[in-house]
Amino acid sequence: MSQTHHEAPLLTVGEVAGIMRVSNMTVYRLIKSGQLPAIRVGKNYRIRRGDIERYLNDRTVRVEKEN
């Protein structure tokens, strides 16, 4: 069976923590609070790369230059 579309890779909590430069516990808190969508696989979580990018983009801060 051929796949016609590319699936986004699923990342582990540890991989997400590394990308975001936070602790694993911070990633778990974001998942538990519903701020970061995750997929439960057995006892583990997997996170789509697109969901990480959306989470970070939604929290981007624009700092205005002072005169």
Which tags fit this structure?
about 70 residues; alpha+beta; three-stranded antiparallel beta sheet; 3 strands; disordered N terminus
Task: Give the beta-strand count.
Answer: 3
Quaternary structure classification: single chain
Mean pLDDT: 89
Rg calculated over all Cα atoms: 15 Å
The shape is elongated
Q: Level of helix content?
A: 40-55%
The fraction of residues assigned to DSSP E strands is 5-15%
What does this entry look like structurally?
The protein has three helices and three strands; from the N terminus they run βααββα. By secondary structure, it is an alpha+beta fold. The chain has one domain (10-58). A three-stranded antiparallel β-sheet has the order 1-3-2. A hairpin with a 2-residue loop joins β2 (39-41) and β3 (44-48). α1 packs across α2. The chain starts with 9 loop residues before the first strand and ends in a 9-residue tail after the last helix.
Topology (SSEs and partners):
Layout: E1 10-11, H1 13-20, H2 24-32, E2 39-41, E3 44-48, H3 49-58
Antiparallel strand pairs: 1-3, 2-3
Helix pairs in contact: 1-2
Summarize the structure.
40% of the residues lie in helices and 15% in strands. The chain has 67 residues and is α+β, with helices and mostly antiparallel strands. The chain has a three-stranded antiparallel β-sheet with strand order 1-3-2.
